[in-house]
């Protein structure tokens, strides 16, 4: 499949306005304030059409921070604002998928606004990149790495990696992982939480993975649940024609008995992927509860045995 490379944005600079939106679950006021303070200290202004903590510890809208209509309206407002070139989601949680049928992808496409997030927000990142053809970034949210910026070294490195990516066109991430299967491959980059990618199967926002370097991460799923989601992707043909498969962090995915998640990944590679020859890596610094390097969906990525690297940036030369 041939996918057009999205248009690059200008480098983010001090004084620019960053949009902030809770697309899924609400964020505590303490974490919102902490994350917002860090972004302001970095020199950015914030635009928050909806307070991301408005419905924290409440269930007025089931699991989400506001009604679907209000969240969609707020997102459209940020996208239409010419002073906002980047939107950072407040957190993941649950509820983002509810927004999909109501989004104006023509507006998103014409605005060329980058959206940043992880976990549940992948329900937006994937169609943002694949259907609208606009760069999205799998990376830290306001209430994750930015909120912990002054407390945890890995949070600081994660948040800094995002700012570097969005402000310095020369930024190219590369790093080594644990080789599950050797080989070389390159293609457009797709990054997702495993559960969210599987959840989009059978919908109009299902992702075409042909020829892609696919990066997966997960949190809080037991090894058998990880296996089930991988099996679902395999049976749907989403693992057939990849350029490479990369596993990020699978945090809090332990079980008291049975195979570990690492054993699940290694075994899946031997069984589900035996008809393919592309390289497979695991233990890369992407995902929950630890270092979460910012990865832009839609750029070209490569795997050369242990080395994972990006060949391009979503940011234009100044």
Describe what this molecule looks like in 3D.
The chain contains 9 helices and 14 strands. By secondary structure, the protein is an alpha/beta fold. An 8-stranded mixed beta sheet has the order 6-14-13-8-9-10-11-7. A 6-stranded mixed beta sheet has the order 2-1-3-4-5-12, sandwiched between helices. α8 packs parallel to α9. The longest helix has 15 residues. The mean pLDDT is 94.
* Number of DSSP E strands: 14
Radius of gyration: 18 Å
Q: Classify the fold: give the CATH topology of the largest domain.
A: Rossmann fold
Average pLDDT, rounded to a whole number, is 94
Number of domains: 2
Major sheet, described briefly? 8 strands, mixed
Structural class: alpha/beta
The CATH class of the largest domain is identified as Alpha Beta
State the distance separating the first and last CA atoms.
31 Å
Q: Assign a percent range to the helix content.
A: 25-40%
Task: Write down the overall geometry.
Answer: globular
Spans of at least 5 consecutive residues whose pLDDT stays below 50 are: none
Instruction: Name the helix and strand elements from N-terminus to C-terminus, one letter apiece.
Output: EHEHEHEHEHHEEEHEHEHEEEE
User: What portion of residues belong to β-strands?
Assistant: 15-25%
Oligomer: single chain
- Number of helical regions: 9
Strand order of the largest sheet: 6-14-13-8-9-10-11-7
CATH architecture of the largest domain: 3-Layer(aba) Sandwich
